[in-house]
Amino acid sequence: MTGASGTARPRRALVAAAALALAAPLTLAASGDAGATGVVWASSIRTIVFARYDAATPVEDLYAVAPFGGSPTRLTHTPAVSDVMPSWSPDGKRVAFLRYGSDGAIDGIWTMNSGGGDLKAVPGTAGASDPAWSPDGTRIAYSKPVGAEREIYVADTDGAPTTRLTHTAEDEYHPTWSPDGGYLAYSRADASGHSRLMKIRLSTLEQTPITLAGSQDWTPDWSRGGQIVFSRVDSTGFAHLHVVRPDGGGTHRITSARANDRSPSWSPDGRRLVFTRGGTDDADPEHLFVVRADGTGLFQLTKTDSHDLEADWRP
Predict the structure, then answer these.
(1) Which family, according to UniProt (predicted)?
(2) What are φ and ψ of residue 275, in 5° steps?
(3) Whole-number Cα distances in Å, 62 to 2, 16, 109, 166
(4) Which pLDDT tens digit goes with each residue over 142-170?
């Protein structure tokens, strides 16, 4: 898993438990009905899915929350297994995510339906991270270790065939698809700890830079309108959200608080972003915020004393 700097954040000590059985998942209710939490969900709501952990429960589970706030609905409950890095399918019916356990017996990408049920492992994804569903719904891109480096792969949703896209001596993280499915953008981290945004054309595997070498650019997300948002650690030492065109032009900053703003995700209409804002160490809570693409209209979406991470906005 990657943090604001893009380096792998430690896998925290997990709660010891002999059984790995899933608890019965909560289901988002249809329009006009209250779910198990008493929250009324309209079927047309484009919910935001995210990972959460706290001091009492140091294992991540996935939750869903409406973009206007309210009480999040818990989608997974796995006492000895962490569920992180969710990614919606383009039809909004399934979520891909990373699942791992402390003993290594469970480690890889899984998918589930929007209510947390019908879980399926994606074969061949042990050690993988950062799943991203293709715009046509047929493939999942992800980062996977090859020797000492991480490379970008693409596979069908059933795990085969698997295609390795990058072959470098650097680490490639967090792929995101162009709206037409012809390209992926991703973060490339070098040995010095810097990271720049790259893009690769799937038909030719030609790779071109989007941002400059020597940057600290992480977690890109490509909008339907063709803009790429990402998190950049700048001269202040904090991570702020920026937007850039796929050709590398027009870079501008969106947020500027003295806090770390990470893992942005576009709303379906490209007008807003959801992201994680947190402090400087693991003891500080991290919350989800929503902001307009021009940096105005900021509001806090989650408020509990927890770490709310890696949000993805339902298409």
Answers:
(1) Belongs to the TolB family.
(2) -155, 165
(3) 17, 19, 14, 30
(4) 999 999 999 999 999 999 999 999 999 99
Task: Report domain 33-313's class.
Answer: mainly beta
Quick check: bond before 315 cis, omega within 30? no
Q: Where are the domains of the chain?
A: 33-313
**pLDDT at residue 66, as a whole number:** 95
pLDDT value at residue 8 = 35
Residue 6 burial class via C-beta count within 10 angstroms: exposed 0-12, middle 13-18, buried 19 and up: buried
**Tokens found for residue 6:** 């893009």
Low-confidence residues of the chain, pLDDT below 70? 1-45, 280-282
Map tokens 């929503």 to a residue. 290
Nearest to 242 by CA among 284, 294, 195: 294
Q: Which residues pair with 103 in a beta bridge?
A: none
Q: How many residues does the chain have?
A: 315
List, as one string, the DSSP characters of 169-219. SSEEEEEEE-TTSSEEEEEEE-TTS-EEEEEEETTT--EEESS-TT-BEEE
Residue with tokens 């604001």: 4
pLDDT at 10: 34
Q: pLDDT tens, 192-213?
A: 989 999 999 999 999 999 999 9
Give Cβ neighbours of residue 314 (< 8 Å, ≥ 6 apart): 46, 47, 48, 49, 88, 92, 114, 268
